[in-house]
Amino acid sequence: MVERPLSVVKELLENSLDAGADFIEIEIRDGGVGLIRVKDNGHGMDEADLKLAFERHATSKIREFQDLYQLHTFGFRGEALPSIAAVSQVEMTSCTREEAVGHKIRIDGGSFLEFSETASTPGTVMEVKNLFYNIPARRKFLKSSSYEAGLIGDLVSKYAIGHPAVRFRYVSNGQLQLDTAGLNTAEQRMAYVYGSNLEKLIVPVQKTEIGAGRFLEAWLVREEITRNNRGQEVFFVNGRLVKSAELSHTLEESYYTLIAKGRFPVALLKLTMPGSELDVNIHPAKTEIKINGYEQLKPKIVEVLKDALWEANITKNAFLPETIAPAAHREEAQKPLSGDKKQPVYLVSMR
Ligand code: ADP
Ligand code: MG
Q: Is 103 within a domain?
């Protein structure tokens, strides 16, 4: 179900990533209601695939029957494009590397308008205009366009952090909000989005097996920098940005006693596991996930993260001159970003 402009952008970003793109440009107008345009340099679709893309359940993800079970539990919908096209005016242009010419399809409120050849470079451009123009009740439910744009900016910045090999460029109402060109590590991306003062405080946790076929990789910002909400606790499961109360609690438990009550860490966690272990259907927007057998994974995750934080803590204190009390150090690290020369262009998600 298309809930708001944010849900459209999430689906389109994930499609571009699925297509193997390493450059994704997102442009929106009026909080995404007027326009959402996502351009990627992924593998694109040929004529037949583009025609199929808007058919319900025409997903390319089902290659073999046994995929069905796994996909059904996570990332499988195969309905994003038709659902979006039903509530907006859509134009999708795509071209594969093998084709000399691209193709374009136009759909208006779910009705097919046009299919034609068009000049195009390899990749895909999806344009979604006038979202919910045919469902006034849905449109009324949306908040101000700056609020909707803020949600989208936050999403894009999180994807930029979680996929550092992909360049993201994001423009809202003609103004550049984010461009990650030249920033190719999670550390650089976190510093760019959340403040350059935290780059030196990031504790990377190498990919660790936390159970059979289950892996954890993390970037934890040390306890000197905290926030007053969970907005910068970022979780990716199998490459998808997810919300998870379980993962939040696990992360916060790992920082336990290091940060004060009511404060929250800045951190990126990436988990990979078999898709059959995930259930995404507990939330209608399908961003809240449930991991089967999480009770077994949790202690291991806490152990790995806690060890990394305490090790960093010990190392830090061992090298700190005695004249620099920890409290002074803390104050330094928490200086407001306004005094920061290398301030990121992108500010929407700062808290
Ligand atoms: P799903 O992603 O679950 O398969 P979607 O409705 O999001 O379903 O997309 C339908 C299909 O259209 C995809 O399976 C894929 O084959 C194709 N597709 C969508 N977006 C892109 C893109 N940006 N690049 C290449 N192929 C795409
Ligand atoms: Mg999709």
A: yes
> Would the CB of 57 count as within 6 Å of ligand 1?
no
Judge if 200 and 280 occupy the same domain. Answer: yes
* Confidence check: pLDDT of 278 > 60: yes
Q: Using a 6 Å cutoff on CB, does residue 53 contact ligand 1? A: yes
Indicate if ligand 1 lies below 6 Å from the C-beta of 40: yes
CATH number of the domain to which 272 belongs: 3.30.230.10
**Same structural domain, 174 and 228:** no
The verdict on residue 222 lying in a domain is yes
**Residue of the CA atom closest to atom 23 of ligand 1:** 16
CA–centroid distance, residue 49 to ligand 1 (Å): 9
Instruction: Classify the C-alpha dihedral 179-183-189-194 as positive or negative.
Output: negative
Q: What is the pLDDT of residues 299-323, one digit of tens each?
A: 999 999 999 999 998 877 766 555 4
pLDDT at 122: 97
- Quick one: 167 and 218 in the same domain? no
Domain with 119 in it: what CATH number?
A: 3.30.565.10
Tell which of 146, 179, 212 closes a domain: 179
Candidates 198, 156, 199, 195; CA nearest to 177 is: 156
Instruction: Give the pLDDT of residue 217.
Output: 98
Q: Using a pLDDT cut of 70, give the percent of the chain over it.
A: 81
Residue 163 and residue 166: Cα distance in Å, rounded? 6
For the stretch 123-168, pLDDT in tens is 999 999 999 999 999 999 999 999 999 999 999 999 999 999 999 9
Question: Which of 60, 126, 238 to mutate for ligand 1's pocket (most ligand atoms within 8 Å of CB)?
Answer: 60
Q: Residue 55's pLDDT band (boundaries 50, 70, 90)?
A: confident
**Shared domain check, 287 and 223:** yes
The closest-lying atom of ligand 1 relative to the alpha carbon of residue 84 is 6
Amino acid sitting at position 190:
M
The whole domain housing 204 covers 195-317
pTM above 0.85, yes or no: yes
Scan for tokens 């009770």, then name that residue: 295
- Whole-angstrom distance, CA of residue 83 vs CA of residue 204: 39
Decide whether any atom of ligand 1 lies within 6 Å of the 16 Cβ.
Answer: yes
Give me the helix-helix angle, 294-319 and 245-254, nearest 10°.
30
Q: Which ligand is nearest to the CA of 81?
A: 1
